[in-house]
């Protein structure tokens, strides 16, 4: 299985190399050269299989021969030891046509653990025997950073730099990242928003001087390894609902569009499903799909902090596909976007994008109302991100056919948003029980490439 860049200027490469690069050297994102397929029989069987078996098979399809099969199997098996639910991703029915897919039973109580735990094992395998050190970078609006710190803190051959927007992640998310005392982890709190952090990560990845003597990659969903690890739960859930004979709608709370794009991938592999991205009032994606103009604005703080994203990285993958894999058009689009901050979508391109995904924006009042409704109607305490998805999903369930809202994080990560609505604090799950005290370690920087590079070079022991 080969991987190609969305911008067409990088040589095709392997899964292993894509994993260890994070982004293609031409600034594009890696995509499989062709989509592996699941047969109708695979889909019928998936629901009855243990999640880790399904995950191992799907990861194996993407890894090809570039990683030993035993490493891929060990990556999937890691979920058994680290998740607090036997089903790993339980699907829970709320109403006749409405389900939530619980993705928060991992060690940091967010869906990011599903792929991140597997990436840690695959990364070890990819580095084995190379004698190389790997510098990993991640931009986070809260959940990815926590999952990355948990997965890579103390890793022998890895350094990890996590950039989060200062004061714009929840206190629990921040402490999950900053109270871990590991010499290979650096937390940078950036005066800016998530998009500034992601821009800095992409710029650091492009810095050739850092690459002397080490590999440099990212554990954001720009890395294909992250997306591959998020495909299995779509397959498992669709199969449980009757695929291939049923076409469920998945409503995905969306920030960087990685989770939603993993759903797109499942469909490309043969899973019948419809994709709806639910965003908060940071609605660049919804404006693009609904009004035809992709425009970056500063991110607004919301209760669903992890979705405070206005330049979702994986829109590039969706656009690449919607252009019929036209790398020149994709490169041109994102160069214009980087320069002007806005691009109008041509009618045929917009139609192709709309055939792939829909998007709805849920405001803060509806988010709070949905948290209240979920408690009153179902006795469930949900996080603000889940509330954004569930608000949209409930509307759709009335139209008929199965609708699944992805429940991406545990509410105890966001007590400051949930408690004022419900009048009580969300119960704390085992994964979060230990995160109350502890000294915090973080360095505050401006949204400035030189400051970020200096800090990252100090972590990696590179010459300034
Ligand atoms: N929602 C994210 C933002 C980064 O997303 P990713 O899936 O690209 O890592 C977060 O919580 O950090």
Automatic annotation (TrEMBL):
Pathway the protein contributes to: Amino-acid biosynthesis; L-threonine biosynthesis; L-threonine from L-aspartate: step 5/5
Protein name: Threonine synthase
GO molecular function, a single term: pyridoxal phosphate binding
Catalytic activity field: O-phospho-L-homoserine + H2O = L-threonine + phosphate
Keyword Amino-acid biosynthesis recorded: yes
Organism annotation: Brevundimonas abyssalis TAR-001
Modified residues annotated as N6-(pyridoxal phosphate)lysine in this record: 112
Stated family: Belongs to the threonine synthase family.
């Amino acid at each position: 299985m080969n991987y190609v860049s969305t911008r067409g200027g990088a040589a095709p490469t392997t899964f292993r190399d894509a994993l260890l690069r994070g982004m293609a050297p031409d600034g594009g994102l890696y995509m499989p050269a062709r989509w592996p397929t699941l047969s109708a029989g695979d889909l019928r069987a998936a629901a009855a299989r243990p999640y880790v078996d399904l995950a191992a098979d799907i990861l194996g399809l993407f890894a090809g021969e570039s990683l030993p099969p035993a490493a891929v199997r060990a990556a999937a098996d890691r979920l058994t030891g680290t998740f607090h639910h036997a089903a790993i991703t339980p699907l829970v029915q709320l109403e006749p046509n409405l389900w939530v897919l619980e993705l928060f039973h991992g060690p940091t109580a967010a869906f990011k653990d599903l792929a991140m735990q597997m990436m840690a094992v695959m990364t070890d395998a990819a580095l084995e025997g190379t004698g190389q050190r790997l510098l990993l970078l991640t931009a986070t609006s809260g959940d990815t950073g926590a999952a990355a710190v948990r997965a890579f803190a103390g890793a022998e051959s890895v350094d990890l730099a996590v950039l989060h927007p200062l004061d714009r992640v929840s206190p629990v998310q921040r402490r999950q990242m900053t109270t871990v005392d590991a010499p290979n982890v650096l937390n940078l709190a950036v005066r800016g928003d998530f998009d500034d952090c992601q821009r800095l990560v992409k710029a650091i990845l492009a810095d050739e001087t850092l690459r002397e003597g080490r590999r440099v990659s990212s554990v954001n969903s720009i890395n294909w390894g992250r997306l591959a690890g998020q495909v299995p739960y779509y397959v498992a859930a669709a199969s449980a609902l009757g695929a291939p004979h049923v076409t469920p709608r998945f409503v995905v709370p969306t920030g960087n569009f990685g989770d939603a794009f993993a759903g797109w991938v499942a469909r490309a592999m043969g899973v019948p499903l419809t994709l709806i991205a639910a965003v908060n009032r940071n609605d660049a994606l919804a404006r693009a799909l609904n009004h035809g103009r992709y425009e970056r604005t500063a991110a607004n703080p919301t209760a669903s902090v992890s979705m405070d994203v206005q330049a979702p990285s994986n829109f590039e993958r969706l656009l690449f596909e919607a252009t019929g894999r036209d790398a020149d058009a994709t490169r041109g689009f994102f160069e214009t976007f980087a320069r002007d901050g806005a691009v109008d979508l041509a009618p045929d391109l917009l139609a192709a994008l709309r055939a792939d995904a829909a998007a709805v924006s849920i405001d803060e009042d509806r988010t709070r109302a949905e948290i209240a409704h979920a408690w009153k109607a179902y006795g469930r305490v949900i996080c603000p991100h889940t509330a954004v998805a569930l608000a949209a999903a409930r509307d759709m369930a009335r139209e008929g056919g199965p609708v699944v809202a992805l429940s991406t994080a545990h509410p105890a990560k966001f007590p400051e948003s949930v408690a004022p609505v419900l009048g009580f604090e969300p119960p704390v799950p085992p994964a979060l029980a230990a995160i109350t005290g502890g000294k915090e370690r973080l360095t505050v920087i401006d949204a400035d490439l030189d400051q970020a590079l200096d800090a990252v070079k100090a972590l990696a022991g590179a010459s300034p």
